Amino acid sequence: MNEHNPIAQEINKIQQHWQKATAGRQDLRLVRLIIKPEEARLYEGFCKLESSPHGQLREVFVTHLTSFDNEDTFSTAIIKDWLQTYDESAPLLQQMEAQGTPLTWDPAPYRHVAMLPPQQAQDALLLQMLSSFRAALPEQPRELVLALLPRQVSDTRSFCNWLTQLLKRGIPAGIKILVLDHVGKDYLAINDRPFPGQLLSMHIPLELEKAVQRLATSGNPNDPEIQYRKCLFEMGAALQAKDLRLLHYWGERMLECTQRSGNKGLFATAHITYAGMLFNFKRDPKILQLLEKGARIAKQGMQQHDPACLPLVIQFYGYQGAYAQIRRNFTEAIDWFIKQATTAQEHQFLPQAVTAWYSAVELTRRKDSSRYYDLLAQAYQAGVNMNDDEISSSVYCYLCSDYYDYAYTNKMQTIVQEIDEKMSRLFGRDWREELARMKKNKTRMLLQPQIMEEEEEISE
């Protein structure tokens, strides 16, 4: 790791704090790192680094991004992901054996989990697997850290309950579980009285924003991309200070430096960046001008075969829909979202397409119900070829749920069966209740700029 890299220096801070806080804590079983939301990617990088041969800590880290659906299925999901990762690590295992440090772990006793009902809790089997894996590690004594960074968490309370159940069962010696929690939220805070010495919560003071800024603006100050980033950070500071005049000043500087570059993609990006920041001031007349001009520039870039410009055009359609929604031009907004969806779909950007369809469908449900079922059907069809990971991490699961109700009412048995099988596989037998709870909590909402809905509620 490059020690002169500002991001690497922040990761080094995490490593040092970890070493100091965990040293000599033989009874420690659960470490809760309390972070700011914007630090999540940095901590994911820390965990993945420590899970690689380049890790600096004494413990052996294994990082899993397994989504948390509910406390009955999570242990089984981790075991399945663990076995898949192990099976895909044959080259690494061969390398370890060639170096004289073989991993002698036997996965066979845990493979039957794939045959068990997904709702049958396997907490004890998970702990047994972790213990056997730790015992098989070379260069003993070694400790194992299971870093859990779920891609999605359907219910933080259930996730906390799952952690508590593992502690009650007794996490084996030499094993620690690491989780991330948010500053001021305490979603995963557990009463430590029943578990003396086993819990550790810590917040590490980082300077990530400064590190990112130093990294992004290092290099040739005359480079248009460096100038763009400089303007971006200054605009962010102006936005935080709610200084519209200063925001416009740096926005215009951003347009000037990117135009000089001759790079259509960069120039269009400057327009959407500037407009996006102005969304925080709701009705600034500059927004529409930036969106219209930026879209024209991106389309010109597409004609010149700039690969960065097609995704930008799709983004511009979404922002134009959002701006129309701010102005309460709901029919126009719906049409923009449909244009965004069909363009993304045409070019096989399916997750982006279903997100745009969702925006259109939800707006018609509230503002133009005559179009609702027609758009819902199109939205459902748009995502039928998505894989399971894309479905479970996008709003398509909500579209499926709504279309299921429509299909059931209209006796469309083939569609009903198709959706039920797909959703049961991803979310369990009670998938409808699970999705209803997730939607209520807005756990997986991926809407367009969300200031629109908020403003609507205030004004109505």
TrEMBL record:
It comes from Chitinophaga solisilvae. It comes from the Bacteria. This is Uncharacterized protein.
